Amino acid sequence: MDFIWTLWTFMLLLFVLDYLPTASYGYTLPDNQRIIYSRDFLLQLQLHSHQAPAIDKLPEELQRKHSTDRTDTLHNNRKKVMRRGRKKGGIKARLRRGESKYRALPSVILANVRSLRNKTDELQANVFHMYEYRTASILAFTETWLTGSDNSDSMYIDGFGPPVRLDRDTELTGKHHGGGVCLYINPRWCKTVVVREELCNPDIELLAVSLRPFYLPREFPQLFFILVYIHPRANATTATDHIKNVLDRLEQRSPDAPKFIMGDFNHCSIDKSFKGFYQYVNCTTRLGKTLDKCYGSVPDAYRAVSLPPLGSADHSTILLAPAYTPVVKRTERVNKDIKQWTPDRIDRLQGCFETTDWNTLTSCSTNISEQADTVVAYINFCVDNIIPSKKTIKIAHRIIQDPAHILSSEFEWLPSGRRLRCPGCRTQRRKASFVPRAVRLLNDS
């Protein structure tokens, strides 16, 4: 009897919920703020889970939002806070830290795509989702299989400039399918792109460009990149001669500019033909062999990282991450103190020399070299104590104007407000340190 009564009560409750005005979406109970949905509404969501729902509008609480507080909190928790003074090592980690903005050499994505026409969507998705593609400065592709009927506007990739391409000439090569090379340049890194050489024959397809990016190390006037594709049945010796002739012309144009040769070389190897060039790709690209290579005139300029191939291509994609250190960062830093030769300081130095007994300095020895060293050491001592250093005074003024500086409390003004209080110095080491020396220079200036 109790079971029948419970069943009738449950059916009556369902009947009432189906005919409530707000039952199609649910309603909120005022006591505990719970949201209840009707059976028909949930069935509609289940039946149309893989397509658009049949209802006109979803409730606000079921709509997917772009970000929630919980998502932002989880995202922030994933960020690892490194200890001060320590950073994650590796070239890719340095690129992620934002050092790619003023990198000495560009990062390059090199791949044999085997038809670029059907891979533009995947390439665009990689640029949007993958950090290696999005921050790359150059995208270099071989075997694009493009023809004159393919419009460059359809090959446009967001974040990169228009493609610089060289399509296969069927009349010159005698081949009606395949071939072609293409370059994409990131405009955030470089906008000055000049095509220097174009070569298309049965043995090689070559495209050479000169780049002058927004930032370059002082030792590089510009950059030359040569993208090549050598057919598997081409004459390797003839192809090498063509590359050598192009390099000679680029060398005459700018001898100090670094030159990089990259692409699909297949059976052709130029390791012994070009002296002074280094091969950077040390990983396999197809069937256990290294067919896609990159040669350069700068030692240890790049480090190769293997990436998955694009679409159905049978060649692995290569990320050439820059590993070159500019000369300005390799040389030891030299700090120079600039003396402030004011008229007042020159008069004080002249008075110091006039009151000096030079016979006392020269009578200590009969050797003229020792006498000269003694006099020079005395002159340098007088100059260091009388002529102030511009660097020391500049840093001291900066510390005084910054109350948050750790040494700001060491510079204390006297009640007059014109001089600083001299710190106590019990040892010569303390007297020659920065704060006492800066206080003396500021008080004397």
TrEMBL record:
Pfam families: Exo_endo_phos
Record keywords: Signal
Keyword Signal: yes
Range of residues in the leader sequence: 1-26
Recorded GO MF terms: catalytic activity
Domain Endonuclease/exonuclease/phosphatase stretches: 132-302
InterPro entries associated with the record: Endo/exonu/phosph_ase_sf, Endo/exonuclease/phosphatase
PANTHER family per the UniProt record, alphabetical: ENDO_EXONUCLEASE_PHOSPHATASE DOMAIN-CONTAINING PROTEIN, REVERSE TRANSCRIPTASE DOMAIN-CONTAINING PROTEIN
Name of this protein: Endonuclease/exonuclease/phosphatase domain-containing protein
Organism: Merluccius polli
